[in-house]
Amino acid sequence: MMNDKNTFLHVANNLAVDFTNTQYMNQGVIAEMLTSMEDVYQWANESGITLKKEFSSIAMEDIWQFRSSIKQLLTSYVDEQALSEEALAVVNQQLKNAPLQQQLKVVEQELILQPLDQALSIAQLLGKIADEAANLLASSQIKQLKRCSNEKCILMFVDTSRAKRRRWCSMESCGNRAKAASFYQANK
Fold first, then answer.
1. pTM to 2 decimals?
2. Cα separation of 100 and 131, whole Å?
3. Cα(125)–Cα(31) distance, rounded to whole angstroms?
């Protein structure tokens, strides 16, 4: 699925869901894309977030646990299961680090709300992701959270399509494979 280790999928229409999508299935095994702090900086950069180049006491294990907690909450919602109190506590802990001061900015002729600090610390990045996850979980948009229809894919996305019938994490990977397999079976 991924050819270049430093290229991340940004197909979820939500920062927190894209963050959980930094793990994917590769030949039946979960592949980890965030293996070092450099990967975190790369992911943030590709997400349009500038991070401060500074020492952080946050370990990769903490980042993985945080990502796992978000994924657990999102998956519980999609599966209509009770939300884990432990996962909620982890996300709530990171919410304390969310950058509070924001500003409006025009990007590609659209008005966006962004943190006032142009460069965030790792803690602020995790806080921003927690804020996105919390806002998604507490909004009506959570009803549009879906899993990729490819049973071998673990990625999720927020379906923002007009008809709300999006099925694949991306057409480039899972959607094209499914269509090719369907075409092959039909013309066999």
1. 0.84
2. 10
3. 22
